[in-house]
Design goal:
Layout (H helix, E strand, L loop, with lengths): L2 H12 L1 H7 L1 E4 L12 E3 L2 E5 L4 E12 L2 E12 L6 E14 L2 E11 L4 E12 L2 E11 L4 E5 L3 E3 L4
Antiparallel strand pairs: 1-10, 2-4, 3-4, 4-5, 5-6, 6-7, 7-8, 8-9, 9-10, 9-11
Length: 160
């Protein structure tokens, strides 16, 4: 077991309340995400609401932007009224986020294009090589490749 993992394990054992109350930060992905890149959406169905400027994609929804890939059962796309560009994506049902070698899954996620943050909620699980981390919520910052785990956090550290 490498030194970093050993120190993390010791810290979690000795200070569990502090690590649970304040959350847990991890690296997520390897490359900085360019949120200016186009967002490609592929789905079985599309419903557009001209009144509120939203679109709903359903059925095997796949969203790709640069190196980031997000899949879900349903994705609501919200546009900025002034520019008609995408403001945010709200995904629900079997949400999967892939950034480089890292994978996260959750019940729901909201991706704010401007901030470059993906906020995942409900049964969040992150897989990174031999490490699995679960939490109530996670916020991924695609600009600096970090993720902050919120709520009850649990990890299983394995020796390689």
């Amino acid at each position: 077991m490498n030194t970093t993992r050993m120190l993390l394990l010791v810290a979690m054992i000795l200070f569990p309340a502090a690590s649970m109350a304040q959350g847990f930060q991890v690296a997520f992905g390897q490359m900085q995400q360019d949120t200016e890149l186009p967002v490609e959406v592929d789905a079985d169905n599309l419903s557009v609401n001209q009144n509120d400027g939203s679109a709903v994609f359903t059925g095997n929804v796949s969203i790709v932007q640069g190196e980031m890939r997000l899949t879900a059962d349903k994705v609501n796309v919200h546009y900025q009224a002034e520019t008609r560009t995408i403001a945010r994506l709200v995904a629900t049902g079997d949400v999967l986020l892939v950034q480089g070698p890292d994978v996260a899954e959750a019940d729901a996620a909201e991706y704010s294009i401007e901030s470059g943050n993906v906020h995942m909620t409900g049964n969040v699980m992150v897989l990174q090589e031999a490490t699995t981390i679960t939490a109530d919520e996670m916020t991924v910052n695609l600009a600096d490749n970090t993720a902050h785990m919120h709520g009850r956090v649990k990890t299983i550290l394995r020796s390689e």
